[in-house]
Structure formats: C-alpha cells, structure tokens
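In this supplementary section we document a worked example of the pipeline. Step one takes a protein sequence of length 81 as its only input; no multiple sequence alignment statistics are reported here. Step two produces a three-dimensional model, which step three serialises into structure tokens for compact storage. The input and output of this example are shown verbatim.
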Amino acid sequence: MYNSRGDLGLERNGAVTFRCPVLLVVGDNSPHEDAVVECNAKLDPTQTSFLKMADGGGQPQLRQPAKLTEAFKYFVQGMGY
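The serialised model returned by step three reads:
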C-alpha cells in the first residue's frame, strides 16, 4: 500500500496546509530525526505536538509501545476526546 499511495496534495511553499492537530513522534536515534524537526518547524505551533522519545531508538513504536500509546492518549485528550 505504501508504494501505491496517492499524492496528499500538500503545498510545500511555506503555506499552511494542515488544519488539524498534528502529533510528530521521533526516536532519539532515528535517522529521520532532522527531517521530523524540520517538519515541526514548518507547522503551526498551536496545532502541533512534537515528541522525541528517549530510549526509543529508530522505531519508538516497536521499542516503547506503551510510552507511545500514553503520548497518543494525552494528545487525543487535549483535543477534547
């Protein structure tokens, strides 16, 4: 499915395209850490939560699933659910 996904239609010229809350999660040793930090800098800080998981390695969803679930729970609670 990943290889056959369609374009999201996002504008990458600095225009705000996300109008919903965004949770960005990255592990402390992830090779994509810089890209996630750069993406976080481009998004609206009032709608964006950034989580850098210590001891998460490159795949925090596999190494720290309980911590990631807890972070997601608080993120959803912050939206009023």
